[in-house]
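Pasting as-is:
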Amino acid sequence: MCSGDHRAALAHFETAASLYRPDEHCDSAFHYGHDIGVSAFVMLSLALWHRGYPDQSARAADRALAYSRQLGHAHTLAHALAFAGLVAVFARDVDTVYAHSNDCVALASEHGFAQWAAWGWILQGWADARQGEATTGIARIRDGLAALEATGARVTTPLYLALLAEALALAGKVEEGLAALDDALAKAAVSGARGWDAEIHRLRGELSARLPYPDPAKAEDSFRTALAIAREQGTRGYELRAATSLARLWHEQSRRGEARELLAPLYGWFTEGFDTPDLIDAKRLLDELA
């Protein structure tokens, strides 16, 4: 999943989750640091979101949290809260991000779990920015990124730099946001963690369009790149976002037919998650294009 093979990732996580036997594997947390079933279900949740099943994704995250609370193993619960909060970021569910990240930070701080505390700060910061507290959010994300770097964990850095770019854009710091996205792509190229490249390119297009002298052609190129990567990697979630961004740009350019032809079949593919922000945005745009 981190390298961008979302089709294979889902198949592996489905198999892992199906093999989990709570009674048989109940001591895994004491061997590996966190329960393998909880780990399987939180990763399955992310994979389901990428493959276009947001409702199933939320249910898998809830299942992981339920298991982790039953176990009474603090590190497993911190791990589950961090990932469930990240799943909620993908779903753009700000209230759930707050709930899980606040619990994660409290638990991780109590027990000295540096990595999960850092994740929690980053997720809190993203939620702050989405709620109109962009300056606070930027500071929290930056603190979280620095703390995460200090642990040696780098695989999620490109994704979290993209969240920083979102927060910077909400604060009106568009050029700083674009610099964060450039940094994200550079780090992804070095580490091989390319699974978030589609969203990073889409955000480049969105932020480019907000510059004082925007270049629509440059924004379109970023959206097309994002769409191509999403399709290649098999992330329906990012594909829908990229298609919505590109269709909105075309709508503004009076290219309504092209916009509808791009977005309608993709929206029609989805069978669930119609109350999630991404699908609501796509449907609203399609109604405008009708």
